[in-house]
Amino acid sequence: MEYQMIKGEEVPSLGLGTYRLTGEACTQAVGRAIGMGYRHVDTAQMYGNEAEVGRGISASGVDRDELFVVTKIWPSDYAHDQVVGTTRESLRKLGTGSIDLLLMHWPPSGGTPLGETLGAMRELQEEGAVRHVGVSNFSTSLVQEAAEHAEIFCNQVEYSPLRDQTSILDQARQMDYLLTAYQPLSRGNVEREATIREIGEAHGKSAAQVSLRWLIQQDKVSAIPKATGEDHLRANLDIFDFELSDEEMERISGLGR
User: Fold this and answer.
1) In the chain, how many domains are there?
2) Which CATH number goes with the domain that contains 177?
3) Whole-model pTM above 0.70?
4) Are strands 3-6 and 9-12 parallel, antiparallel or unpaired?
5) Where are the alpha helices (DSSP H) in the chain?
6) pLDDT < 50: residue spans in the chain
7) Annotation says 47 is catalytic
8) I need a surface site. Which of 25, 187, 233, 242 has the fewest CB within 10 A?
């Protein structure tokens, strides 16, 4: 495993996304992934699978301190009391004692002021229930506004070789926050890109593996691909035995739109 250094803390560069994973399949996927070496697990209150994720974490037998566990608050719960109440419920379901990173799932759509939501998250941070706070799907200007109310550790956004996020990545480096890439394989579309496939052939890797390597080889970037089966989980993890050249990185960057 490789790590990104964010505000003096190491965060695993590769994590497991759990969107649309439910029931026993979710529990097994999480347990299997951690057993293979994954140490970063991403869920959300909206996914309805925090309890299953928690059971997978528990079943893995890996020490809690080795894991980086992320969940997110849904916009309907952005008022102060809902933030506190739903996060305590998340902690109960996860059974992890604390949450490493708590995110606002989407920008607020009116109603609750941003400062109220982040203020409640900061209270949870101060009492030790949450270690870090951040946002998801925020523009650079909204991140700047959020930073007036809390120390922002992360902005989780859709990012892949086919989805340019240069402005957010530049800001992440300036402000020392983590850019977590969800849908890092663009729903499988990276497999159709001849450039990525060609680079993969040169390294004996798949287009998906090259795409994940391209992401985590960038400073301040982590990726959270979703996978359930053992082969898929292992393939996503098998990206630490090669490096892309500067030229290869640039060629892939040129595909973004």
Assistant:
1) 1
2) 3.20.20.100
3) yes
4) antiparallel
5) 23-36, 50-60, 80-94, 114-126, 140-146, 166-175, 194-203, 207-216, 230-237, 246-253
6) none
7) yes
8) 187
